[in-house]
């Protein structure tokens, strides 16, 4: 996947993004890191085809848009069970009814919610709601998974657990993941590459490859290597924001 000269300008001339140029390799886990309002979410929506760029283009392998999207909020239908919420993309794409059940079961098992298929959103914790949202994004077996600050509203313990589960899922499925966050610590822990963005209009200021021993776990989170990467990325983010103010 490649973004070439992508910009976004809203009504009244507000420049939100770009120009942005970067490439994401198949199976790579990349984080877009930057302050709130820098255009990270705008970039995701353009990649997903939910918004058109003012200029530039997005090139996807094969020319298709096999994409799953996990939003900041779970956006589950409160009147529907977890099973029916996860099945929604399949129903909208007019999948055969006979196939939907099996695909939903697989997606729920992938995120650890198989036992809660008949539950309603009001019966779920915040972390479980986000797992249901992730299952809904995975149920169509997309090539690319876009995640827009999905864990930002969760408590730290739940967030750490979901970070670990997401990495395990990524290692197993090898989806291409683009993950938006404003947390230096989360971006370094999850990503193989961190793309640092400037304040609005968001541009790419720096990139860091997080090259470390796999699989990542709590030992990495408490290691000197992790702390060193966090310091480097934090310094790059501070530099990007300082350069913007000058």
Report on the structure:
It is a single chain. By secondary structure, this protein is an alpha/beta fold. It has 2 domains: 2-66 and 143-245, Rossmann fold (3-Layer(aba) Sandwich), CATH 3.40.50; 75-141, no CATH class. The chain is 40% helix and 22% strand. It contains 8 helices and 9 strands. The protein has helices spanning 40-48, 82-92, 97-110, 126-138, 156-173, 184-190, 218-221, 224-245; strands at residues 2-9, 15-23, 29-33, 55-59, 67-70, 144-148, 176-181, 193-197, 204-209. It has a 6-stranded mixed β-sheet, sandwiched between helices. β1 and β2 (15-23) form a beta hairpin. α2 packs parallel to α4 and α6 (184-190) packs across α8. The two termini are 33 Å apart. The mean pLDDT is 92.
What labels would you give this structure?
single chain; 246 residues; alpha/beta; Rossmann fold; 8 helices; 22% strand
Count of distinct strands: 9
Biggest sheet details: 6 strands, mixed
Strand content: 15-25%
- Please, how many helices? 8
In total, the number of domains comes to: 2
Identify the CATH class of the largest domain.
Alpha Beta
Question: Superfamily at the CATH H level of the largest domain?
Answer: P-loop containing nucleotide triphosphate hydrolases
Question: Topology of this structure?
Answer:
Layout: E1 2-9, E2 15-23, E3 29-33, H1 40-48, E4 55-59, E5 67-70, H2 82-92, H3 97-110, H4 126-138, E6 144-148, H5 156-173, E7 176-181, H6 184-190, E8 193-197, E9 204-209, H7 218-221, H8 224-245
């Amino acid at each position: 996947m490649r973004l070439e000269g992508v910009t976004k300008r809203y009504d009244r001339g507000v420049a939100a993004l770009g120009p942005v140029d970067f490439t994401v390799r198949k199976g790579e886990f990349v984080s877009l890191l930057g302050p709130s309002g820098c255009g990270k979410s705008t970039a995701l929506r353009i990649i997903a085809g939910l918004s058109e760029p003012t200029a530039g283009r997005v090139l996807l392998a094969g020319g298709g848009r096999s994409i799953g999207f996990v939003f900041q909020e779970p956006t589950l239908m409160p009147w529907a069970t977890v099973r029916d919420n996860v099945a929604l993309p399949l129903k909208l794409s007019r999948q055969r009814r006979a196939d939907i059940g099996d695909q939903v079961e697989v997606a729920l098992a992938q995120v650890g919610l198989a036992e809660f298929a008949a539950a309603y959103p009001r019966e779920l914790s915040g972390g479980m709601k986000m797992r249901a949202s992730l299952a809904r994004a995975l149920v169509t077996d997309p090539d690319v998974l876009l995640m827009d600050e999905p864990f930002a509203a969760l408590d730290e313990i739940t967030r750490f657990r979901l970070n670990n589960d997401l990495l395990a899922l990524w290692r197993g499925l090898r989806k291409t993941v683009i993950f938006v966050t404003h947390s230096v610590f989360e971006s370094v822990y999850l990503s193989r590459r961190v793309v640092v963005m400037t304040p609005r209009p968001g541009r790419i200021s720096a990139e860091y490859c997080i090259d470390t021993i796999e699989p990542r776990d709590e030992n990495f989170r408490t290691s000197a290597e992790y702390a060193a990467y966090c310091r480097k990325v934090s310094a790059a983010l501070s530099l990007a924001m300082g350069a913007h103010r000058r």
